[in-house]
Specification:
Largest sheet: 8 strands, parallel, barrel
Distance between the termini: 49 Å
Order of helices and strands: HHEHHEHHEHEHHEHEEHEHEH
CATH architecture: Alpha-Beta Barrel
Helix content: 25-40%
Radius of gyration: 21 Å
CATH superfamily: Glycosidases
Strand content: 5-15%
CATH topology: TIM Barrel
Number of strands: 9
CATH class: Alpha Beta
Length: 364
């Protein structure tokens, strides 16, 4: 590391310490040795917002008691995505997702559905036509219709909200939609069809667009443009899912607040759907302060976000993308010295400062 990099690290460390000193005080967790008694976040926030977690068929067995204690909503991290539910055309597999649904129902938990259409999780057969030729628009739409009718129909009356489409926005494109195979083969109205198919399969389900970086102005403007077009065409869009894979350094609370307000003014519901807060900057494996300071900053930032939620009756649920730091996706390919700690519970399932900040932010 050269001199200028050293100076940069020192300056950021000092700024982080200053932020910590100026932040509102988060109640300290109770002093304890060994296991810390845990109040329930779900009970603390009951009647305010649903408190959710992304789960899989494994951790509902290994961490089932903890999940049921802390959360009153779940979403399948991968088990309801298209490549999992229909890996080969017409061959549906709901075993893993069914296990999650049974677990949730046995604990009176709400169930989010994620996701019916995602460019990164579309099986190859969707694009294959007869005799090795590419599939055309009509065939792709027929396949999409059957997939959505089958999956949404299978969970009709059980899944209360669906992320119908996931990560469709590209602010660099003229029409604000991602230039992927869905757009190229079907055209921009593939979004309309996906929502109409889902609504027909379960008219009572709430239907969402799920997107990342919605707090960034250019992305937000594009999402507004796409949503307004859908609403004008009578497409049954009920809400926006804001993924919120964020950092202790960004975005600002005011940017998140502005985004939620923007979509509430369109008459839409908001949910935070994949929340975690990295100690790192995006694609940067350096820590810019001590872990202790960064975890303290994380706690304060989580507290600020949850206090802001009180100003948004349009926000109906906050879902964390994982149960504890032991299984966060941010550590899937991380080296041993780059372990992230983005969630509320540590690798042993014990409350962190972030947990206590979220607990303290609930109204009582």
């Amino acid at each position: 590391m050269n001199i200028s990099q050293n100076l940069r690290v020192v300056v950021i460390s000092l700024l982080t310490s200053a932020l910590l000193a100026c932040s509102s005080t988060t109640p300290a967790p109770p002093a304890a040795t060994g296991t810390v008694p845990r109040p329930s976040l779900a009970k603390a926030w009951q009647g305010q917002v649903l408190i959710g977690a992304a789960v899989d068929e494994k951790n509902i067995k290994t961490q089932g008691e903890l999940i049921a204690e802390q959360f009153n909503s779940v979403v399948a991290e991968n088990a309801m995505k298209p490549m999992a539910t229909e890996p080969r055309e017409g061959e549906f597999h709901f075993e893993a997702a069914d296990a999650i649904v049974r677990f949730a129902q046995s604990h009176d938990m709400a169930i989010r559905g994620h996701t019916l259409l995602w460019h990164l999780h579309t099986p190859d057969w969707m694009w294959q036509g007869a005799n090795g030729q590419p599939a055309g628009r009509d065939l792709v739409l027929a396949r999409l219709k059957r997939h959505i009718e089958t999956e949404v129909g299978h969970y009709k009356g059980q899944v209360y909200v669906w992320d119908v489409v996931n990560e469709i926005i590209d602010e660099k494109q003229p029409d604000c939609l991602r230039d992927d195979l869905w757009h190229r083969v079907v055209g921009p109205d593939y979004v309309d069809y996906a929502f109409r198919y889902a609504h027909a399969a379960d008219p009572a389900a709430r239907l969402y667009i799920n997107e990342y970086s919605t707090e960034e102005p250019a992305k937000r403007r594009c999402l507004v443009r796409v949503v307004q077009g859908l609403l004008q065409r009578g497409v049954p869009v009920n809400g926006i899912g804001h993924q919120m894979h964020i950092s202790v350094f960004y975005p600002t609370i005011s940017a998140i607040d502005e985004t939620l307000t923007t979509f509430a003014r369109l008459g839409l519901e908001n949910q935070i759907t994949e929340l975690d807060m990295s100690l790192y900057r995006w694609k940067d494996n350096r820590l810019y302060d001590t872990r202790e300071n960064l975890l303290s900053l994380q706690a304060r930032r989580y507290g600020e976000i949850m206090r802001m939620i009180h100003n948004h009756p349009d926000v109906t649920a906050v879902t964390w993308w994982g149960v504890s730091d032991a299984s966060t996706w941010l550590n899937q390919d991380a080296p041993a010295d780059h372990r992230d700690q983005p969630l509320l519970l540590d690798e042993h399932g014990q409350p962190k400062g972030a947990f206590w900040a979220v607990f303290a932010a609930a109204r009582r």
